[in-house]
Amino acid sequence: MDRTFVGVPASPGIVVGPVRLLRWEVPDVRHRIIQDDAIVDEIARFHAAIGAAKERLRHVRARAEQTAGAEEAAIFDAQILILDDEMLLAEVESNIRQNYAAEKAFDLVMLEHRQQFARHAQPMLRERANDLTDVHIRVLTLLLGLPDHDPVDVPKGANAILVTHDLTPSLTVQLDRDAIIGIATDAGTRTSHVAILARSLGLPAVLGLRDATTRLTGSERAVLDGTAGVLAVNPTEPEVEAYRRRARREAEAQAQLREFATAEPVTLDGVRVRIYANVDLPEEAEAAARSGAEGVGLMRTEFLIVGRATMPDEDEQYRAYRRVVEAFGGRPVVIRTFDIGGDKLPAVGYPSEPNPFLGWRAIRMCLDEPELFKVQLRALLRAGAHGDVRIMLPLVVSLDEVRQARTLLTEACEELAERGAPFRADLPLGVMIETPAAAVAADSFGRDVSFFSIGTNDLVQYTLAVDRGNANLTSRFTPLHPAVLRLIRTIADAARAGGLEVSVCGEMASDPLMAFALIGLGLRVLSVAPRSVALVKRIVRGITADGASQAALEAVDAPTAAMAEQGLRRRFVAALGDAPFLRGGLPGLA
Questions:
Q1: CA angle 167, 172, 177 (to 5 degrees)
Q2: What is the pLDDT of residue 350?
Q3: d(CA 301, CA 303)
Q4: Cα 25 → chain centroid
Q5: Cα(94)–Cα(345) distance, rounded to whole angstroms?
Q6: Looking at domain 36-143, which CATH architecture does it have?
Q7: Which residues are known catalytic residues?
Q8: Left (φ > 0), alpha (ψ -120 to 50) or beta: where does 388 sit?
Q9: Each residue's pLDDT tens digit, 335-372
Q10: Which pLDDT belongs to residue 385?
Q11: DSSP-based three-state secondary structure for 423
């Protein structure tokens, strides 16, 4: 084959198809001066490009509405309004009259506007910088006569592998699962937003390829192996057949695992473990409910605001939450309040801060914007009338934050009562433990919350000081580091002492080897990607809790992450042997 790119295995599966190269970046614009007699024609050329861009956006919006829904497609309304802004158009015309070529005149105006909005004190206005960037790219592409790489043009049935640097909100809502069969990106890691999205959509994905977009032309055929983390370019037919044989073996192993979807997750020595599902989009709820999950351990709510020009109202949120609650028919549904910032796609002004992981995000933002937060709380309380809803607060580091949130929850109840709206007032309130501070002080929350959920994605990065979205640090993002394992044990011990349920809802729980470690650390509730439910049930039914505990104790005392992993792997393989589902190169066992 021509070449092989090795990256991070982010979402399992093997697919073969043409490369769809998407370079969504502001192009370089050289300084070009025009003569006085060319000004009128240059202004006309500029307006023709604006008209073409608006027509393009209307087409993109219509396509996105079909594939993603009306709310998600609304992101493009704001971009069309930018192109209708008379003041912006006048500024560009003024530059052209000063003998700048149209592309340079537009480039200068857009750079200035983007800088102004990015520095704005209001988050909602800072969000406009992201729309301005998309408009900047789209119009310059037309003015410079560059190839149009818009993903909306991928025809249904193309079975293409999307290769791009990263996924922005405007690109994400255009993804058509009938056209795209796999995702490969230069940026990202296994716990980044793109990886979680790919697993949620059931698309094989390889991230952290670093320079694939600069080394490919878009005319290639490729094999994307999301299990091993490989993008193989222009493979020979024998090589393709070898990958297809692997894919068939993985499919057979998955078919065997599906038999465990309805099985009771009980260890060989009689310990019951509950397996919940993580849900990223309401559209996934019905499939997640059929996966064998006993409830939802984490419903992420950021889909409601990522890439949006305005915040969703109470009714829109209520409908989304209710859909998931009703799909699970009375089973527990833990819904996390807005967790904006960090590696999430830009939303309502994030991540425009210099250090978004340590910035104004999650519960901090919600408490500082109480009216915004109460809209979500009222929607959750109303959804609670339809089932077993539990509210979870992200990135909590102090008891004060919990008490402030509870005060706002009480106010939300009073407001609903005044309106006469049906709701449930006694929804359990829990916290997501995902910082070392919260882990060490977990016992301080015991009297004020109903449950803990360990968010291992952030807990690992904050404990190890490793940005989980940085492909350069992939090898240093080690969830089985003894320091991380000790913090998880501390949290589990605090929960038991306080009589609270504790679960793990981070990506760590979906990994076979790490699930083994978590059970050994005393966790009895794991929330995983829906496609991993049967796999984790199989793990549970093939081990003893006592054996997992002994392995975890050794790992906690190991001097290095590598030694902790080696010891766990040895005991894990001894317990499960050469099971077919372990031979597909599953994460953690490759």
A1: 120
A2: 43
A3: 5
A4: 21
A5: 35
A6: Orthogonal Bundle (1.10)
A7: 193, 505
A8: beta
A9: 999 987 654 444 444 444 556 677 778 899 899 989 99
A10: 97
A11: coil
CB 324 within 8 Å of CB 296: yes
φ/ψ of 543, rounded to 5, equals -125, 170
Contact 62, 152 (CB under 8 A): no
Maximum Cα–Cα distance across the chain: 87
Per-residue pLDDT, 349: 44
Answer whether CATH 3.50.30.10 is correct for domain 3-24+153-252.
yes
DSSP assignment letter at 27: P
474: pLDDT confidence band, cut at 50, 70 and 90? confident
What pLDDT shows up at residue 150? 66
Which tokens belong to 302?
A: 């950021």
Q: What is the pLDDT of residue 22?
A: 86
Instruction: Give residue 284's identity as a one-letter amino acid code.
Output: E
Residue 203 to residue 312: CA distance in whole angstroms:
27
- pLDDT value at position 55? 93
Q: Check pLDDT > 80 for residue 260.
A: yes
Residues 6 or more apart whose Cβ sits within 8 Å of residue 272 = 264, 265, 266, 524
Does residue 573 come out as left (phi exceeding 0), alpha (psi in the -120 to 50 range) or beta?
alpha
CATH entry, 259-582, from 3.60.15.10, 3.20.20.60, 3.30.420.10, 1.10.10.10: 3.20.20.60
At 563, the amino acid letter reads M
Average pLDDT, integer, range 214-223: 93
Extents of the domains making up the chain: 3-24+153-252, 36-143, 259-582
Q: What token pair was written down for 306?
A: 């990522």
Q: What percent of the chain has pLDDT over 90?
A: 64
By 3-state DSSP, what share of the chain in percent is helix, strand and coil, each rounded to 5? Answer: 50, 15, 35
Residues in the chain, total: 590
8 A C-beta contact, residue 112 and residue 136: no
